[in-house]
Every structure is written in C-alpha cells, then in structure tokens.
Fold this sequence. Notes:
- The structure is a single chain.
- This protein has 2 helices and 11 strands; from the N terminus they run ββββαβββββαββ.
- It has a domain at 6-73 and 120-163: Tetrahydropterin Synthase, Chain A.
- A 6-stranded mixed beta sheet has the order 9-5-1-4-10-11. The protein has a 3-stranded antiparallel beta sheet with strand order 6-7-8, with no helix packed on it.
- By secondary structure, it is α+β, with helices and mostly antiparallel strands.
- Bound molecules: the ligand Nc1nc2c(c(=O)[nH]1)N=C([C@H](O)[C@H](O)COP(=O)(O)OP(=O)(O)OP(=O)(O)O)CN2.
- Ligand LPXRUNBV is lined by residues 23, 31, 119-121, 152-153, 156, 158.
- Its EC number is 4.1.2.50.
- It is an enzyme of class 4 (lyase).
- This is 6-carboxy-5,6,7,8-tetrahydropterin synthase.
Amino acid sequence: MPTERFKVRVTKDHLVFCCGHFISYRGHQCERLHGHNYRCAVEVEGPLLPDDFYVFDFIALKKRTKEITDELDHHMLLATNNPVISVAPTPKCVQVRYEDREWQFPRGDCILLPIENTTAELIARYIAGRLWESLRTNENFTPEVLRVEVEEAPGQSATVEWRA
Ligand SMILES: Nc1nc2c(c(=O)[nH]1)N=C([C@H](O)[C@H](O)COP(=O)(O)OP(=O)(O)OP(=O)(O)O)CN2
C-alpha cells in the first residue's frame, strides 16, 4: 500500500510586505539601505481533519499569516541582535549605527526584530515562530510541519521548516 501525505500552501498578493532593510555580511560589512516587496508563502503538513477532509483551512491560514505580514508592511526592519549594527530605540526615534555611518528613523516607522540580521532566512524564522504560536492559540492547531518561505525578489527566497 502506498503511503500518502497532504500539504497545503498559500501565497497571495496580500501576503506581500514592503519594507526597508539592510544587512551586515561577511561578518563586518554593511549594505546600503534599500527595500523589497517581500512575498510570504506558507505550507502546512499533517493528516486530514476528520470532519473537513482538509489539512487546515486555507482561509484561516491566510488570515493568521496576513496578521503578521501586515504588521511588517511599510516599515523599516531592524535587527536588534546584530553584532556590528547597533540599534538604539528611544520613545520617538531609533538610532542605528554601523562604524561611522548613522541613520535615524521615526520610532513608528520601524519594526525591531529580535534577530541577528534581516536576512530572508531570519525574517522567515521570525514569521514561522509568530505563526506557529498564532495557529496554536487562535486556531487550536499545531501542524506536523510548517514551512515559511520569504521571497525577497522574484527568483530569490529562503525557507525555514518547523516540525512538531
Ligand atoms: N541567503 C541570503 N543571501 C542574501 C540575502 C538574504 O537575505 N539571504 N540578502 C541579501 C541582500 O539583502 C540583498 O537585498 C539582495 O541582494 P541582491 O541579490 O544583490 O539583490 P538584487 O535584487 O539587486 O539582485 P539582482 O539579481 O542583482 O537584481 C544578499 N544576499
């Protein structure tokens, strides 16, 4: 008897989030500020739910993902744990420093992420963590496998996979 597995995947234009960012690379270098129309795709794997005959409702999956991507949309993404870029928030602004370069952003324009770098990989991991928790608390659902893909631009993306 063959075995079977099911997976559902959502990626939609409303799961696009437009953000400014810059990353450090090779340990000590720092990109110039630029932006992306990031696109998020989410997959969940698991057995079919007995009453519904689906792994998980597309509608709920889109809603819970969109709640997270909407928080990021139209913001400057800043990683607070970067070893070479310092991020200092005050009530009104965020001051960012890398060597002799300095930026200042209005506080409300920034999302401070507790990650090391705003790479597509770590943004995907951040979204996966938030979504895992949201599905558990709001939908009483823990997928066997959750994959979050963040596409920076068409043709380049990073995916993280979480397993229960
Ligand atoms: N594995 C990863 N590699 C890189 C990431 C990343 O998040 N994960 N990010 C960057 C940069 O932030 C940058 O935004 C991407 O650089 P680049 O590919 O040069 O961007 P373009 O869209 O201009 O690419 P073209 O193919 O030249 O149009 C770098 N690496």
